[in-house]
Amino acid sequence: MNTDEIVKYIELENQANQLIETVAKKNNCDSQDMKWWHISNYFEQNHKIVLVPLNKHEFSTIIADTYGIYGLTLKDNRMAMICYNNECTQTRQHFTIMHEIGHFLLHKNNQTYPSLMQENDYTEEDQIFEKEANNMAGMLLANKKAIQSLLNESANYIYRNYQLNIK
User: Fold this and answer.
1) Does the predicted model carry a pTM greater than 0.85?
2) pLDDT, tens digit, for every residue of 30-43?
3) CA–CA separation, 6 vs 4, rounded Å?
4) Which comes out higher in pLDDT, residue 167 or 95?
5) What pLDDT is stored for residue 111 in this prediction?
């Protein structure tokens, strides 16, 4: 990673952490206990976003080429619709929803992403947007506090077993 990428990554991480803390407060839970649906519910309730599960055939009514489509965001000045492929595994669906929420948060223009797909190839800027949305999705699904908590639990478990085995 070069310096600009590191700076951007830290900026994304700060935005993700801020969102996680906001959503955790709204749900009266610790951020380490957050689930993907807490975040999607927050956006549905507070940002006029509608989540729409679609199968491959239904996607084809929106865009011509559905090869490799996991999800897309359609938005205008009043609301946004996140469509995701409900024929994918649940984990893929969760990642796609968080990825599209990443677009909503980070890329505030009114461009809809199916228009990018119909142009066949992403521009260099669009590739950056996709990478940012992927990073945001990963940070929202596996937040820092949850990972640290899991590592601490594992370390304590290993230490306890080690202590039992040496006695």
Assistant:
1) no
2) 998 889 999 999 99
3) 5
4) 95
5) 55
Give the CATH number, domain containing residue 108.
Answer: 1.10.10.2910
Mean pLDDT of 78-87: 89
For the chain, the DSSP string reads: --HHHHHHHHHHHHHHHHHHHHHHHHTTS-GGG--HHHHHHHHHHHS-EEEEEE-HHHHHTT-S--TT--EEEEE-SS-EEEEEETTS-HHHHHHHHHHHHHHHHH--SS--HHHHHHTSS--HHHHHHHHHHHHHHHHHHS-HHHHHHHHHHHHHHHHHHHHHHH-
Domains held by the chain: number: 1
The rounded distance, in Å, linking the Cα atoms of 64 and 3 is 39
Q: Provide the angle, in degrees to the nearest 10, between the axes of the packed helices 124-141 and 90-106.
A: 120
**Residue 101, domain extent:** 3-166
CA dihedral of 11, 15, 119, 62, whole degrees rounded to 10: 170
Determine the pLDDT at residue 159: 60
Cα 36–Cα 40–Cα 42 angle in degrees, nearest 5: 115
